[in-house]
Amino acid sequence: MERINKCFHFFEDDPLEDFNTSKRVLCTPSQFARQNLAYVQEIGMLQCAKAHRNARSFLDSFLFFVVRSGKGTLCYNGRVYHISAGDAAFIDCHNAYYHESDSSQLWELAWVHFNGAHIRQYYEEFQRCFSAPILHLHNTQVFVTRLQEMLQTAAQNDFDGELACSYQLYALLADVFLCRREKMLQKNFSHGKIEEVKNYIDQWFGEDITLDMLSEKFFISKYHLERTFKSRYGTTIGAYVIQRRITRAKELLRFSSLRISEIAEICGVADSSYFNKLFKKSEGITARTYRDMWREK
Q1: Please, where are the H alpha helices in 60-109?
Q2: Chain segment 215-226, per-residue pLDDT in tens
Q3: Are residues 212 and 177 in the same domain?
């Protein structure tokens, strides 16, 4: 394994910001981390002693921060957002931005600069799902605790710490998306009915299921049904039906002696040729190859 080249600087009271109380860890990730992991570039806790402004652009980094107390302003992509305790932000630092504390209610932040494998894809999905870079958190402490734990992990200065930080960063991003879905469910009067739709698909995916049929059965417009289902479960109804069929097909291929044509019919696909196309598109191999590879010998 390669030798890890990493340097950390940990400041209990950051001399670069003598008007603030700041704890931070700077990280230089190993080559392995740069190529394969999500990695921390800089992480810290900031408590302002006077108004504080930070401006950057063209920075190869992503920033996530939580406002623990106080309030301030974030300017990002030409728009100004007023944020306060209980809010968080997720931004791409390639874009010009600044954030500054309100002079009358100085803020306290927990933050992390990070980058790495698939982070841009997460950010692009975040942009698709959210109308703004700001999150209004239901439980701020969950995010603060995760950042505090990450701060301690990053200070380990070893390969185990890099692996743990990568895990913690992906968990942080998962929390972001789960937070959004919780809020949508709280506002959406029909979320219980959407769960009924999913449960129905789970039970009857082997039958002929269409959006028109579900709309009529559950008394929901097709547009609202499709939009709400995707917001709740992250996939379209059609894709979810196929996923359930493929999963059942894999079970039968491994643990039964049924012919592939019989399995296709059980899973709701009468045309075995079309079934094979669906299976290969999903798994990258044919159903027969899957059976040969996974059957115990």
Answers
A1: none
A2: 888 888 888 889
A3: no
- 293 neighbors 285 (Cβ within 8 angstroms): yes
Where do we find the tokens 């109380």?
21
Place of tokens 């894709």: 239
The residue from 133, 158, 186 where one domain ends is 186
Chain-centre distance for alpha carbon 27: 23
Q: Are residues 171 and 249 in the same domain?
A: no
Tens digits of per-residue pLDDT, 44-88?
A: 999 998 888 899 999 999 999 999 999 999 999 999 999 999 999
Q: Which residues of 246-278 are buried (b: 16+ CB within 10 A; e: fewer)?
A: bebbbebbeeeeeebeebbbebbbeebeebbeb
Sheet holding 134-136, edge to edge: 9-11, 20-26, 38-48, 108-116, 62-69, 87-92, 134-136
Supply the range of the domain harboring residue 24: 9-186
Q: How far apart are CA 130 and CA 150, in angstroms?
A: 25
Whether residue 62 contacts residue 91, with contact meaning beta carbons closer than 8 Å, is answered with yes
Report the number of distinct structural domains present in the chain. Answer: 2
